[in-house]
## 1
Amino acid sequence: MTASEKRGRGVGSAIAGQAVPILFAVLCLFGIWVAKITPAFLLGELSARVGRNSVLVLSLLLPILAGLGLNFGIVIGAMAGQLAAVLIVHWGGKGILGFSEAWLLATPLAVLFGLVTGLLFNKAKGREMVTGLIAGFFANGVYQLLVLFAFGSLIPFHDPGMVLPQGYGLRNTVDLTTIQYAVDNLVALRVTLEGVVTRIPIITYVVVLAFCAFNLMFFRTKLGQQLRAMGQDPHVAAIAGIPVDRNRLIATILSTVFASWGQLLFLQNIGTLNTYSSHEQVGMFAIAALLVSGATVTRATVGQAILGTILFHTLFIVSPLAGKALAGDAQIGEYFRVFVAYAVITVALVLHAWQIARAERE
């Protein structure tokens, strides 16, 4: 084989390896063209979405590094963040101080939830993804019981603006305006494009960059190298003296804590909490956002997390408008983006199962 043929094959393999992000980029560009979306509108929508969703996607990286796969259990961390937000607003927390208190309160809750989830993962080695998914469903049931019945009855909680008329249970929607934009409004850069002013939340992006930097530095630590070795072959890692079970617990706890912080960052941008449903799709959408970047069940990077967040949420912005332009119904675009979210997860899991089966045959 000549050198030019080798280069051509190398380029072809690189393109094939990036087929998913390329496809998503093409879909986004097509939707922008069909719907005639202006750069100013796209920038304004995307700056808010990427800022409030990136930490949730980044919370998936450590479990993948440790060989746990896609952590569907981050929904449990999101619940910890929501409980902290409800309590802080009830206690009168406001602005960045109230938001910081919510982060502090969410941390021990998320550590506890992550510890329980990690212990469960250690009992279900090799089946962590389905275990995390089912654990999320179970935790959701406990959460629903807590917020629907315990608040106001077992737990003293009598805020008329937050409790249902019967005196117990939280309302479907909780107002979080006291901490809304607590981070976004600290420092905001105003960008004027095509006569439209867009506010870029600088501190929010500083927080996202801090999480990116933490992950990059963590990968280079001794613990990070141990997690990488575990992800490649946990049996060999255990023989080498690496405390596999303990490290799996640490990775799960950190992922759960990051998810709780990410959910709070999301909520302060939204300003309202859908008490019974805000957390339900956190895991699915974060995992889909990661996978559209070309990441896999066994390998993901910080760059892929950010790229996937940008591509996935660009499609979220574009698809309803493209659906309306093509078929006169924005709901078609909604159906399409939900289909895409589940499709990329399904394909990733099927490919992972196929790779495991092939490795076992060899």
## 2
Amino acid sequence: MYLLVYKSLKFSPQIDFEIIKKDGFEIVFASNLKSMRDMMLAREAAAVIAFYESEEKNALDMLRYIMRQHSNTQRIYLTEHLGKALIENAVNKAHINYLLILPADPDHLLKIVKKAFRRYEFLTRPMKRYDDLAGITAELLEHVDKFKNEASTDSLTKLFNRRSFDEILDKAMALYNKNDLHFSLVILDLDDFKKLNDSYGHQAGDEVLRTFGHILQKNMRQEDSAFRYGGEEFAIIASGDKAKNIKLFIDRIRKQVKETIITFEDHQITFTFSAGIACVHKTVSKDELINSADQALYYAKRHGKDQVIIYEDIRVKST
């Protein structure tokens, strides 16, 4: 992994990168968009740094390119300008991950680079979180290697597959019963997916599935796992003991998906999903947990779609 720094010949602020190099990070510099793209195609960077310049468009074009073509690469934007328009452009057009104000403190910049590298490693090595879980209980150690192969991953979306879902859910249930590690099961279903396939074709449908899988993977917290459950149905095992917090987390993803536009051939495709959440508790079995999440999902589908429903909320309504 390396850090790519885009330094325009017209604008090259004095930044002390030595502290970053001394910490063991490899740093590569690019002076124009073409050399930057060539470097990224040859070897993807874990993070990129771009500076505000008088020709602001160059830096934003580079970050937007990174966002679209190398979405796992973390985007760091440095500026000495605090203008609202500049910040809005950086956030809305390039979806920057980190914004620093010049002059940058070297120690603070190093801290940000470390965070960016950890985030990149997490996004590109989804199984790393199971290594972390293995530290919680030795019982997981014998299962970790099972997930580190292609048989555990859906080839289209790159998410974990149904087989992995069953095994990891079993482990999550065991950890809850033994160590009281709370979690929620979320089942998500793309709305009107058959209609989308019929309208645009199966290749367009595959592109929607790929895009949705990428959005889920990009938004997963370190302690969560996302799966392709089957067809246009997905699942998330989300850590935490408060269903309302999980709902806020899934709802942020829902809003992001709703704003996503997929360009396929001559079409602009948008899509939404519905989701049901069920929380684990001492009296629920694995099958009952899945059934509860399913019921919440079906409720969301029947009552307007494009929404997230907690099973406990509809259970209260029915009593």
